[in-house]
Design a protein that fits this description.
It contains 9 helices and 9 strands. By secondary structure, it is of the alpha+beta class. It is globular and about 55 Å long.
Length: about 240
């Protein structure tokens, strides 16, 4: 993760640190922002949101899984957003003659916290497990956001997905253009992985700029005429 104390003091027990952070957050910040009667249930809510990082969020699915109302999910999600524990990314809408998915995507703000909440205890397990793609996408999106924030700018970001499954993980609005970014947890990027970028450029025309396929390898490669494969280290 990216919390300064854990990076400055690598000998700290990260499990204890995250457990203490969550406990402090639950007891102080959550009660300050909104009355939550059942903190154990709220902690289960945190885990449910973490498991959905980098995915399109269905409030009704979360409510059903936890046995709570959709209004409670909305209220608790507002607490996470107000306290900067999550990033909510809205879909991009344009008059392109297609019905776009309206639900937002959600990202946990810190990958270390995400791993702690879903029970991933070592880097190898995280990198090879079923959540590897979600973790990598979360890390990339949060680095893009931090890059803008550290320059004193408010990032304007979206995702793009149609009802037929065409998608681009991230759209960054910059100088009046939309930069499409596809994110893949692979060290061997292939041109077909950028198919969503090509389709978006076709649909949005001059509004869309050249795009990037961010991957976990160390090579920069052309992915056709409209995209470049870029290592995460260069983001």
């Amino acid at each position: 993760g990216a919390y300064p104390e854990l990076n400055a003091k690598p000998d700290l027990d990260s499990r204890l640190w995250y457990a203490s952070y969550i406990q402090t957050y639950l007891e102080r910040d959550v009660r300050t922002l909104r009355h939550v009667g059942d903190l154990t249930l709220f902690q289960n809510f945190l885990r449910a949101i973490a498991a959905r990082s980098a995915q399109i969020l269905s409030l009704s699915d979360v409510a059903r899984d936890l046995g709570i109302s959709v209004n409670s999910v909305k209220a608790w999600l507002s607490v996470l957003e107000a306290s900067h524990q999550v990033l909510i990314v809205r879909p991009y809408f344009a008059n392109i003659g297609k019905r776009l998915v309206k639900s937002p995507k959600i990202y946990l703000a810190d990958t270390g916290m995400l791993c702690h909440l879903v029970g991933l205890r070592d880097p190898e397990h995280a990198a090879a497990g079923p959540m590897a793609g979600q973790l990598f996408e979360t890390a990339v999106v949060m680095e893009v956001v931090k890059a803008y924030t550290n320059r004193g700018e408010e990032p304007v970001i979206y995702y793009w997905r149609t009802s037929t499954g065409e998608e681009v993980d991230l759209l960054v609005e910059h100088d009046g253009m939309l930069i499409p970014i596809e994110i893949k947890a692979t060290a061997t990027p292939r041109p077909e992985m950028a198919a969503g970028i090509a389709r978006l450029q076709e649909d949005l025309g001059a509004k869309a700029s050249s795009g990037y396929l961010i991957h976990s390898g160390d090579v920069r490669l052309p992915m056709g005429t409209g995209a470049t494969a870029l290592p995460f280290a260069e983001v």
